[in-house]
Write a structure and sequence with these properties.
The chain is of the alpha/beta class. Helices cover about 35% and strands about 20% of the residues. The strands form seven sheets. A seven-stranded mixed β-sheet has the order 2-8-7-6-5-3-4, with helices on both faces. Strands 25-28-27-26-29-30 form a six-stranded antiparallel barrel. The chain has a five-stranded parallel β-sheet with strand order 15-14-13-16-19, sandwiched between helices. Helix 2 (about 35-55) runs parallel beside helix 7 (about 240-275). It is globular and about 90 Å long.
Length: about 750
């Protein structure tokens, strides 16, 4: 393995581990105890404090231990800002800070504070002059990071410290990324508060510090006992503190040697990048940067696709801050530096340590060049250099793993058939929806990811979680909400299949060098004599899922495998159990994944907010008012149970009129129709409908289907004339046409 993500965390130095081990084993006393076992622990904490203070030229009593950098940042900002409210409520920071600082500032804004977020230049530098210009009479705190965690740019800390001290303003520095890698003198730089974390300098995770200039009085963030001189309660992490102190001691002794080596390695990396990959963009090039940091953008590739292929070659890198992995937003740091959103989404970060080698840089560079060339070729991007041809020994397939038994068995069957299988779960939840779905165990939620990961371990296949939050929000959630507000009832599974699984996931899979994607759908793909692909019914009639797949394109079908379509559901579970898959007996999901409890109205209320119309009238088809309804999103045409209105019997919704906010009520018989018009057409087994044709049509997922004649009546319109009337043909639902056991095509009911 090659590890080039040292900005995220570093390998524990064996000498640090040796320092920690006694306090994890025989020296396990509580530092607050008065007996000798406790005294030994207390001395270890004191030694760690002295070593850390020496690294930044502070006094030992100015060092307070925390759980890490985020806690230190939060403690510094909230205590400094809220503790000086009587002097003012204005804070200055920059647009490129770590989210521990930015989100703390956003919270302060909610509490009534004013925060100025300063711009940076194209190299990621904030000017000291801009800081001074932003100062107001009510400014009480300035917070600027020592060095940026994404691009490594070092800020003019000493100059800003001078300005802050002159104006009597507290100065906090987030030094998490720089601590132990470059010289820091808190006295000379006039720093009042400084955050650091052990795991960024070959120390242990879970321990950090906050330096507080001894003249300052700040409020505790954690209340309880008298630890840390009453300012940070909780039993000390003795082993972690001992390790942190040892890491600081080693950093002080070896800093110059380490800086020289990492600077030379990153310089060699940059030379090869610029010479061998056309149009590469080096972020922050020319600025004073941390020696091992290298941030690049390689248009037009997406960073995630490159990172996965690097990982498959045993190379660890990242696309930005480790604390924002999974976020669908482009890097706020690169946007602030002037990169476009597309460039920022394609960023890669390689962060080297003194333990890396030139051979590792060359091996990574060779792999990166091959990966980028392959992706660019697929995207039609013209490179100036000769293309690198990637020879495939066997077909690669990306299996969309939802954490259920069907997709798990699909992956197993394909591996047995000799495919090079890669498992992927799509991360699709964002914002408030995310927590609700995770709590309710929805599709692709946390529990699903863990189940899929365990299956991948059993099958011994690579497994990744890919970010599709934006496309799911745009193509599924937003469309679903809009349709409901228009009085239509869409099928979100159809939307997700077409635009997320078979559009976004397929595109990403092809970028990874895969020839196919595969799912656990109960359907079968066949190629007809005319060369066209279509979908056949599965052998399990009760689990047939072809209805939700009618709108896939020919190109998508050509790159798709559905291996479980040839199996009964009971056989799929038996295969899973025989293979020892942990999901063999996992129940099938019954709900629409993002609507817990099938409470559509509550979901629409949350997502649409002010756009949701309020209560309105129940009316007859002629407009006679029958009563009041609680909102059109609470109703769909032909609801099975009907409604109990003061009419002496059950009645049913026959129409929804969003323009007048009316729900039309009628008898059950009025729901039966013999004619349906549909649009948004897609044909599979034929290129287009040239003449009337007798087919079997399903108007909802669980509809058995009825025979009808379909005929084109416009460019994107088909009329379906049923031989037997069908009930509740609902606008927004799909109507799918079957020719025997295969899907002819389908459309959306108008």
């Amino acid at each position: 393995m090659i590890y080039f993500d040292n900005a995220a965390t570093t390998k524990l130095d064996p000498r640090v581990l040796e320092e920690m081990l006694p306090y994890l084993q025989e020296e396990y006393g509580n530092p607050s105890a008065i007996y000798s076992l406790g005294s030994h622990a207390k001395r270890a904490v004191a030694l760690g404090r002295r070593r850390l203070a020496a690294l930044i030229k502070a006094e030992p009593e100015e060092i307070y231990f925390t759980s890490g950098g985020s806690e230190s940042d939060n403690w510094a900002l909230f205590s400094a800002a809220c503790g000086r409210e009587e002097k003012g409520r204005h804070v200055i920071t920059t647009k490129i800070e770590h989210h521990a600082v930015l989100n703390a500032c956003h919270t302060l804004e909610k509490k009534g504070f004013s925060v100025t977020y300063l711009d940076v230049d194209e190299l990621g530098r904030v000017s000291a002059e801009a800081v001074e210009k932003a100062i107001r009479p009510d400014t009480t705190l300035i917070s600027v990071m020592f060095a940026n965690n994404e691009v490594g740019t070092i800020q003019p800390i000493a100059r800003i410290g001078e300005i802050a001290r002159t104006h009597g303003i507290l100065f906090h520095v987030d030094a998490v990324q720089a601590f132990g890698h470059v010289p820091i003198d808190v006295k000379a730089m006039k720093i009042d508060l400084l955050s650091a974390s052990a795991h960024k300098l070959h120390g242990p995770k879970g321990v950090g510090l906050l330096y507080v200039r001894k003249e300052l009085k700040i409020d505790p963030m954690i209340y309880g006992g008298t630890q840390e001189r009453g300012r940070r309660a909780g039993t000390e992490n003795v082993a972690g503190i001992a390790g942190f102190g040892k890491a600081a001691e080693l950093a002080m002794e070896e800093m110059e040697t380490a800086r020289e080596k990492t600077a030379k390695l990153s310089g060699h990396f940059i030379e090869r990048l610029e010479a061998e990959i056309p149009d590469v963009l080096i972020n922050g090039k020319g600025a004073d940067r941390l020696p091992g940091h290298l941030s690049v953008c390689i248009p037009p590739v997406e960073g995630e696709s490159v990172l996965i292929q690097l990982d498959m070659r045993g190379i660890c890198a990242s696309s930005g801050s480790a604390c924002t992995i999974g976020s669908s937003e482009p890097s706020h740091v690169l946007l602030a530096m002037g990169r476009s959103a597309e460039e920022a989404k394609g960023s890669l970060r390689f962060t080297l340590s003194e333990w890396n080698t030139k051979e590792e840089v060359d091996q990574t560079m060779d792999a990166l060049k091959e990966i980028v060339s392959g992706i660019r070729k697929m995207m039609g991007y013209q490179e100036k250099l000769p293309e690198v041809i990637i020879k495939k020994e066997k077909p690669k397939v990306v299996v969309g793993m939802s954490g259920g038994v069907d997709s798990s068995v699909a992956a197993m069957l394909l591996k047995e058939q000799g495919y090079d299988v890669l498992g992927v779960t799509m991360q699709i939840w964002k914002g408030e929806n995310s927590s609700r779905i995770q709590e309710n165990g929805g599709c692709c939620g946390t529990s699903a990811v863990e189940d899929a990961r365990r299956v991948a371990q059993v099958l011994e296949i690579p497994y990744y979680v890919m970010n599709f939050k934006d496309v799911f929000q745009r193509e599924v959630i937003d469309v679903f909400t809009k349709e409901y507000l228009c009085g239509r009832t869409p099928n979100p599974c159809i939307l997700c299949n077409r635009m997320v699984k078979w559009e976004a996931l397929l595109r990403r899979s092809l970028e990874l060098g895969a020839e196919y994607i595969a799912t656990g759908h109960y359907a079968r793909i066949m190629q007809l004599p005319n060369g066209r692909y279509c979908i056949r019914n599965s052998v399990t009639a009760t689990k047939d899922q072809t209805y939700a797949l009618y709108n896939l394109t020919q190109e998508q079908l050509a790159h798709t495998l559905m291996p479980v379509g040839d199996y009964e559901k009971t056989m799929v579970r038996e295969l899973a159990a025989k293979a020892g898959l942990p999901v063999a007996n996992k129940p099938d999901s019954q709900e629409i994944c993002f609507v817990p409890g099938d409470d559509y109205a509550a979901f629409i209320d949350r997502t649409a907010g002010d756009r949701v119309p309020g209560p309105g009238n129940f009316v007859t088809p002629n407009g006679e008012i029958l009563g009041r309804h609680k909102g059109i999103t609470h109703y769909t045409i032909g609801q099975r149970r009907g409604l109990e209105l003061p009419m002496g019997h059950r009645v049913f919704v026959t129409e929804i009129r969003p323009e007048t906010n009316e729900v039309v009520i009628g008898e059950n018989e009025e729901l039966f129709v013999d004619r349906v018009i549909c649009d948004r057409l897609n044909f599979m087994s034929i290129e287009d409908l040239k003449e009337p044709m007798r087919v079997k049509a399903k108007i909802r997922y669980n509809h058995g289907g009825e025979y009808c004649t379909i005929e084109k009546i416009g460019e994107d319109l088909v009329e379906c004339r049923f031989e037997v009337k069908v009930r509740a043909a609902t606008p927004g639902q799909a109507v799918v046409f079957y020719d025997g056991d295969h899907v002819l095509g389908g459309g959306t009911i108008r």
